[in-house]
Amino acid sequence: MKVALVHDWLVTHRGGERVLDALCEVLPDADIYTLIHRPGSQSPAIESRRIFTSFLQHIPGIHERYRHFLPLMPRAIESLRLRGDYDVVLSSSHCVAKGLRAPAGLPHLSYVHAPMRYMWDLFDDYFGPGRAGLPVRAAAHAVRPWLRRWDRASAARVDRFVVNSHHVAGKLRRFWNREATVVHPPVDLERFTRLPLEGSGQGGYFLWLGAFAPYKRLDIALEAFRELGAPLWVVGTGQEAARLTSGAPPANIRFLGNVPDDALPALYRDARALIFTPEEDFGITPLEAQACGRPVIAFGQGGALETVNARTGLFFGEQSPSALAEAVRRFETWEGGFRPEDARAQAGRFSRGAFQQAMLSEVESLLRVARKSTPDARAV
């Protein structure tokens, strides 16, 4: 079957792009449509495709400043025109990708990582006091009602939704009044299970890993470990890097910056535990840590409740330094009963192959329905 893949933007290679990579692997003839593309930023499976971009691609400096153009993104995604004879549209959306205007009669399946979180439930995390300058906050408040209306209206164009977690399925009901099937996203478990479980956790440090985005709440971890004095290694960078790394860090906190992918398994394996502070819609890093045989200390909301269990981690009840610090203290006792093999078994439930098979089944199911409703539809 000929598939048009739609993705928000191709600038960095993170969780959403790993989902797109897995889809490309099982849809070898698919073309990709996206707002902007930084050549060379993606995996070979993505870069080798025909990639079509919107008018935003031609704005000077867009790859560094694309977030500033959020108000133009609905118009940009709607301006994209499909350049082929496709059987189905499959969008991978956390912002506007699901809003592409497919030709009449062409079925559209959308895999949603999250509704536009910075315009819905996490607005204050991005644009609350202290999170952005006054002009940016004023602009965000001004466009928020319109963007939410567009987000809800464009959801009506999609024939079927699939989401990455039950947590996100609940958001679709609340924000868009739509139901969705849950297919957990793929985790590249193979490279995290190559190292043996024996001797894991011997580095003595706790690990925080992710983008320095407001909702990730790295600030909680930094404050908690300043109080605890325990070693914390931080991997990543992002839009809040200047604020979070200003001044000399305490001796017990190390900022490692971006780390090559091939170095991550050893970092996970040698950590005592992963510290997971955001309310994620799913969250892949807890599964990567567990695949390496390490436990997780996670904020007890969102996708972490679907990926971490009582044998593989601990939860803290509020996003505050004191709650996290208390959980780390509890971990000192709980750690004695932890078994690395339990963590690896839990991660094994979220394999790349399971995701790919489930998504192919969803696409084929939608096509069967489309053929029944249009008797002269093309054979696939």
From TrEMBL:
Where do the Glycosyltransferase subfamily 4-like N-terminal domain residues begin and end?
15-191
> Entry's SUPFAM superfamilies?
UDP-Glycosyltransferase/glycogen phosphorylase (SSF53756)
Pfam (any one): Glyco_trans_1_4
Keywords from the named record: Glycosyltransferase, Transferase
Any one GO molecular-function label of the UniProt entry? glycosyltransferase activity
> Which superkingdom is the protein from?
Bacteria
What PANTHER family does the record point to? SULFOQUINOVOSYL TRANSFERASE SQD2
- Annotated protein name in UniProt: Mannosyltransferase
From what organism does this protein derive? Myxococcus stipitatus (strain DSM 14675 / JCM 12634 / Mx s8)
